[in-house]
């Protein structure tokens, strides 16, 4: 008679290392690559796809999809230049292939193979803290001198009645579509919602965007209004100040019950995208066992990105602050200085730019006008210049937009908003000005190539001095000096 011997649990292999990184997205990979190349031993846990949200579900695929949409939009607008083209024939399966090809081209840089070649021990599994300096996962028990949590964020699902039983997409699934949505409904009017609304509308979908507050509510209201006008111009139906009360549907379509101004209307579509904010990925990390405190927005960190467990850092989205890939990369540099070189390092986010990649783009760095007024009162100068007044913008028929610069009366730059063609590229010099405390006069006196869109910033900076240069007092001085020959 045969008897089965009970299987014994597999013993976990112990690894002792200098740095253990949890999360293989932008921030985690930057820490791992930097640390291992500086001579430390590094273990990296990643339970999903290397490259994280940005490469696989966020920045890269969304910009690839937007580029396809912009190409279609350019064909429709070619008549402005005397070129007549037919309505573009959008092959959505090929658009999907384009998006996947862009991701595939970047993947090797973030791959397991590359990081193992660098010397990183990559464990493709989730990691869980079992005490203040140990994590387990994938058959390993890892003890480290320092830990870096870089698990990112995922789509927050609002508590809408019926939504959990309704088929919906998030940024993690919408790029899997190989057929064009006939009518895409979007919950959320932030950057993700606006970008994907524009992309799908340009590619031929009907789009309805529903936002509970105001569209792009964290941005300059005047700039946000221009983006809204653009979306409506290309045919997106925008409902802001609208609350989604109920969702229903099946594979054949979805329906939203939306309250606007006290009235309920039913909106029917073929697909539903939820883009109503983000939540930090902390589930399953065993943070209590490690003595790591959290808040509603994510893991609590100090100015140096250390958690309540001084051996553990948290960076990027999971740290509950600004949720941008470039912030995660910047956080990584702060951690490298602190953990490897034991140098005092603090994260300074005063000059972090952000961009919404619609066309026109909306870019912001530093303080918004209302934030600056709340902090500095009336000690401000608000400098403006429009794309309409720029020769390059006129040549390219891209005159929609403006720059707004907020400065103190002593010339210190506090913030800048640009809405228009290539705003994401133009904002960088203003981030440099804020971060390095470069005053407005240096920008006004810089030499900018003609004709370029960059002249918009120089012209705005120059307007800081207009009142003084062309004042009655200055005219008197010039006339007085002229009397001497």
Automatic annotation (TrEMBL):
MF GO annotations: flavin adenine dinucleotide binding; NAD(P)H dehydrogenase (quinone) activity; oxidoreductase activity, acting on a sulfur group of donors, NAD(P) as acceptor
SUPFAM superfamilies xref list: FAD/NAD(P)-binding domain (SSF51905), FAD/NAD-linked reductases, dimerisation (C-terminal) domain (SSF55424)
Cofactor: binding comment: Binds 1 FAD per subunit.
TM helices/strands, residue ranges: none
Domain FAD/NAD(P)-binding residues, every copy: 18-331
Keyword Disulfide bond: yes
Keyword Lipid metabolism: no
Cofactor(s) listed: FAD
Residues holding FAD: 63, 151-153, 317
Disulfide cross-links: 54-59
InterPro entries documented for this protein: FAD/NAD-bd_sf (IPR036188), FAD/NAD-binding_dom (IPR023753), FAD/NAD-linked_Rdtase_dimer_sf (IPR016156), Pyr_nuc-diS_OxRdtase (IPR001100), Pyr_nucl-diS_OxRdtase_dimer (IPR004099), Pyr_OxRdtase_I_AS (IPR012999)
Residue numbers binding NAD(+): 188-195, 211, 277
Domain of life: Bacteria
Domain Pyridine nucleotide-disulphide oxidoreductase dimerisation residues, every copy: 352-460
Any matching Pfam family: Pyr_redox_dim
Alphabetically ordered keywords of this record: Disulfide bond, FAD, Flavoprotein, NAD, NADP, Nucleotide-binding, Oxidoreductase, Redox-active center
Entry's family note: Belongs to the class-I pyridine nucleotide-disulfide oxidoreductase family.
Name listed for the protein in its UniProt record: FAD-dependent oxidoreductase
The organism of origin for this protein: Nisaea acidiphila
């Amino acid at each position: 008679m045969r008897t089965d011997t009970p299987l014994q649990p597999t013993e976990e292999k112990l690894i002792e290392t200098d740095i253990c990184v949890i999360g293989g997205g932008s921030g985690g990979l930057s820490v791992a690559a930097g640390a291992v190349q500086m001579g430390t031993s590094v273990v990296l846990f990643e339970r999903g796809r290397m490259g994280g949200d940005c490469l696989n579900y966020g920045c890269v695929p969304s910009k690839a999809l937007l580029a396809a949409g912009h190409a279609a939009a350019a064909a429709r607008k070619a008549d402005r230049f005397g070129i007549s083209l037919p309505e573009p024939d959008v092959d959505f399966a090929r658009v999907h292939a384009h998006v996947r090809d862009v991701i595939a081209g970047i993947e090797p840089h973030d791959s397991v193979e590359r990081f193992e070649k660098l010397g990183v021990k990559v464990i493709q599994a989730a990691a869980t803290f079992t005490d203040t300096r140990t994590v387990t996962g994938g058959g390993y028990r890892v003890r480290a001198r320092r830990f870096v949590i870089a698990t990112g964020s995922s789509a927050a699902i609002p508590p809408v009645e019926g939504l959990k039983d309704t088929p919906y997409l998030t940024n993690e699934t919408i790029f899997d579509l190989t057929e064009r949505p006939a009518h895409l409904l979007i919950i959320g009017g932030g950057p993700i919602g606006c970008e994907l609304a524009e992309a799908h509308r340009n590619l031929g979908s009907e789009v309805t965007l529903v936002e509970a507050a105001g569209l792009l509510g964290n941005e300059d209201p005047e700039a946000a209004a221009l983006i809204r006008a653009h979306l409506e111009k290309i045919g997106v139906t925008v409902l802001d100040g609208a609350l989604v009360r109920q969702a229903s549907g099946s594979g054949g379509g979805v329906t939203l019950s939306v309250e606007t101004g006290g009235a309920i209307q039913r909106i029917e579509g073929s697909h539903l995208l939820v883009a109503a904010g983000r939540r930090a990925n902390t589930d399953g990390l065993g943070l209590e066992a490690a003595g790591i405190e959290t808040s509603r927005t994510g893991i609590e960190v100090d100015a140096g990105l250390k958690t309540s467990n001084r051996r553990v850092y948290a960076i990027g989205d999971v740290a509950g602050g600004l949720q941008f890939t470039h912030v995660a990369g910047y956080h990584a540099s702060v951690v490298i200085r602190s953990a490897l070189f034991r140098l005092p390092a603090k994260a300074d986010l005063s000059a972090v730019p952000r961009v919404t990649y619609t066309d026109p783009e909306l870019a912001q760095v530093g303080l918004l006008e209302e934030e600056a007024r709340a902090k500095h009162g009336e000690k401000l100068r608000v400098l403006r210049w429009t794309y309409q007044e720029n020769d390059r913008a006129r040549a390219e028929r891209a005159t929609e937009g403006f720059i707004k610069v907020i400065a103190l009366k002593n010339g210190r730059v506090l913030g800048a908003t640009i809405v228009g063609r290539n705003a994401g590229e133009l904002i960088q010099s203003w981030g440099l000005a804020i971060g390095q405390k470069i005053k407005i006069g240096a920008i006004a006196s810089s030499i900018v190539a003609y004709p370029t869109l960059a002249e918009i910033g120089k012209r705005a900076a120059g307007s800081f001095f207009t009142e003084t240069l062309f004042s009655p007092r200055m005219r008197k001085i010039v006339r007085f000096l002229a009397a001497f020959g």
